[in-house]
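Lecture notes, continued. The same structure-token format from the folding unit now serves as the input rather than the output. Read the line below as a description of shape only.
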């Protein structure tokens, strides 16, 4: 049976706007509408950029429900449901499936540092419990564990595991993953500075932090590639590089929230242990934004 392709092109790893009371649902709704209007192909909610580790379970569930309702099926909603506790990841995955999420994104368990056998067992248990496609999420800089290509090859045989968000930045390993999975699951770039290189290797798109700030340009990069305009896609990738570097000059989503606050779209609020963007990074980010006409 052929696996479902969740989206092709650019998906936004959406921030979770916050205010004095908690989650700012008015701002979240406006962000969702803006993103969809800019042409993004999917929205990832309550993942790393959405500060999922510091959302309470109640907040996490309410944000997912709100996003699904607000999107009105205009684009797929991909729910972040990963955890360092497989049982908790299963619970959140089952909840996301029950309320109508189109897919789930599950990060490798952080802090525990499981073996590759542990990763296979954990992801298999989550995928067995899911009724929608599961996207693996490899980001060893945050989790301390790399999802090895051979492991991806084994997990690609599971009928519910349809894709991987590859944010390791390790190009030789990523290339090996492409070779090993042999088209049995989609690959999405998880790094905005590697969108075009991974598309050239066969990626189906990107799950993007950059798209929080310049969704139309992030969409255009993938669209140009898939339309065969490689020169145009390369020009966009290189032109966006200074902004991408500024958006990752401190821990994500600190810069993304600073940028959106400067644009008047959200309050610059993060949940501890994350704190607002510091100098000189803030000044450099705003300079890049001004150069691009965003301010």
């Amino acid at each position: 049976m052929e696996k479902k392709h969740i989206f092709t092109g650019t998906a936004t790893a959406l921030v979770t706007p916050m205010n004095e009371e908690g989650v700012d649902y008015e701002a979240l709704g406006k962000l969702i509408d803006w993103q969809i209007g800019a042409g993004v192909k999917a929205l990832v909610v309550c993942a790393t950029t959405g500060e999922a580790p510091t959302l309470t379970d109640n907040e996490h569930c309410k944000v997912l429900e709100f996003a699904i309702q607000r999107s009105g099926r205009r684009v797929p909603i991909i729910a972040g449901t990963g955890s360092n506790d497989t049982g908790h990841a299963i619970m959140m995955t089952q909840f996301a499936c029950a309320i109508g999420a189109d897919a789930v994104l599950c990060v490798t368990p952080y802090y525990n540092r499981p073996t590759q056998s542990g990763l296979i067992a954990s992801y298999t248990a989550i995928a067995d419990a899911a009724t929608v496609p599961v996207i693996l999420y490899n980001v060893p800089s945050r989790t301390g564990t790399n999802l090895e290509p051979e492991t991806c090859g084994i997990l690609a045989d599971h009928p519910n595991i349809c894709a991987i968000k590859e944010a390791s930045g390790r190009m030789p390993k990523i290339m090996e993953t492409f070779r090993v999975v042999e088209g049995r699951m989609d690959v999405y770039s998880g790094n905005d500075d590697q969108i075009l290189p991974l598309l050239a290797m066969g990626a189906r798109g990107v799950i993007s932090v950059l798209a929080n700030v310049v969704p139309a340009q992030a969409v255009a990069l993938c669209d140009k590639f898939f339309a065969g305009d490689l020169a145009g896609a390369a020009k966009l990738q290189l032109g966006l590089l200074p902004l991408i570097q500024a958006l990752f000059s401190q821990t994500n989503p600190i810069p993304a929230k600073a940028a959106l606050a400067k644009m008047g779209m959200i309050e610059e609020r993060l949940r501890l242990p994350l704190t607002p963007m510091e100098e000189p990074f803030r000044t450099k980010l705003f300079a890049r934004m001004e150069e691009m006409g965003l301010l």
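Point for the exam: The mean pLDDT is 97.
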